[in-house]
Design a protein that fits this description.
Elements (H helix, E strand, L loop, with lengths): L5 E7 L5 E7 L2 H13 L6 E6 L8
Antiparallel strand pairs: 1-2, 1-3
């Protein structure tokens, strides 16, 4: 799994469990995916979070 991607996580509110993770190459793409997920999401039970890419230290 590439480390230079944004990760969009769907998290169950009461347990903190990540129930789904999607990846996007750009921040804009990640935001669009998150907006799409939020349209029909049950916000009482779930929320989303975008995790930015981790810094790579490859020489």
């Amino acid at each position: 799994m590439p480390t230079d991607t944004y990760k969009i996580k769907v998290i169950k509110a009461d347990t903190g469990e990540v129930v789904k993770t999607l990846e996007a190459v750009t921040e804009r793409a990640a935001e669009r995916i998150e907006r799409g997920l939020n349209i029909n999401m049950n916000h009482a039970d779930y929320f989303t979070e975008i995790e930015p890419p981790k810094e790579s230290h490859n020489g």
